[in-house]
Amino acid sequence: RRNGGRNKHGRGHVRFIRCDNCAKTVPKDKAIKRYKVQNIVAPENISYFTEASVLDGYHLPKIYIKERWCIIGCAIHKKKIGIRSRK
């Protein structure tokens, strides 16, 4: 591939991060990164919290998680991305 799977382009060194799946170290620019946004409360329990809330129209906060995987294989294994074409 054109960029060798990296986003470095002129930087000599980038720091390493740990994969969320296998804990392997990988350069930060090479890792596959995705944001996951989810509710703090499970969907089946939201109605209980809205009924018990003192404030009208209160929206429960969300959790913002940045997931990082070392290689395409880990991300495909966790079913976060699809299989890439051979081009």
TrEMBL record:
GO terms for biological process: translation. This is 40S ribosomal protein S26. GO terms for cellular component: cytosolic small ribosomal subunit. Keywords: Ribonucleoprotein, Ribosomal protein. InterPro entries: Ribosomal_eS26 (IPR000892), Ribosomal_eS26_sf (IPR038551). Belongs to the eukaryotic ribosomal protein eS26 family. One of its GO terms (molecular function) is structural constituent of ribosome. The keyword Ribosomal protein applies. It holds the Pfam family Ribosomal_S26e. It comes from the Eukaryota.
